[in-house]
Design brief:
The protein is of the alpha+beta class and about 180 residues long. The chain has 2 domains: about 35-95; about 95-165, no CATH class. It has 4 helices and 4 strands. Strands 1-4-3-2 form a 4-stranded antiparallel beta sheet, covered by helices on one side. Helix 2 (about 35-60) runs antiparallel to helix 3. The longest helix has about 30 residues, at about 1-35. It starts with a helix and ends in a 9-residue tail after the last helix.
Length: about 180
């Protein structure tokens, strides 16, 4: 009798664990299902990256600190990607880069000052700042501009600098003192 009761409890526990696992899997699938194929593909890519990091950690190929930082980076990229997809309601994601404060030198020749970063601003004609995500470390997430956006920004800069030079030249011309010559 007691053995039978233990067996029933064990089966109920296994069944409960299996249903929880299926529910978690379905919730993950449901989250991905709300996005289009491009966003789902990117989220799948991030999941694969996490599996690679997990595998390398299980084989003791990487340090614990490396594992934690990269897992947190993947989590930050996932969070920003889902936010972009929900806000824009568009199946498009730019190329995303997430860097901790000590890694900004990997993205920029002269890294911007962290306190001056503004969401939506473009830095070095290459990256648009999307926001900071606290996931263990604080990760600063940027979208890499496509070549057309970069070319457009550089053209606008040329136009603005040419106009500034022209305005400076006309200002000098109008403010130059007149020469009063002596009568001959």
């Amino acid at each position: 009798m007691r053995r039978r009761l233990s067996l029933i409890c064990l089966l109920a526990l296994i069944s409960f664990a299996g249903s929880r696992s299926a529910l978690a899997q379905r919730q993950h699938t449901d989250t991905a299902d709300q996005f289009g194929p491009i966003v789902r593909s990117y989220l799948g890519y991030l999941k694969s990256e996490q599996e690679v990091v997990d595998d390398r950690a299980s084989r003791h190929e990487i340090t614990r600190a490396y594992y934690i930082r990269n897992s947190n980076r993947i989590r930050a990229l996932r969070q920003i990607a889902m936010r972009i997809a929900r806000q824009t309601d568009n199946d498009y994601l730019p190329e995303l880069e997430a860097a901790a404060s000590d890694e900004l030198g990997n993205l920029f020749e002269q890294p911007p000052t962290l306190s001056r970063l503004r969401v939506g601003e473009v830095y070095s004609n290459t990256f648009r700042f999307l926001g900071a995500v606290r996931s263990g470390d604080t990760f600063y997430v940027f979208a890499r501009l496509d070549p057309y956006e970069q070319a457009d920004l550089m053209e606008k800069e040329k136009t603005n600098s040419a106009q500034a030079v022209k305005a400076g030249a006309s200002e000098q011309a109008t403010s130059r003192p007149r020469r009063v010559g002596a009568a001959h």
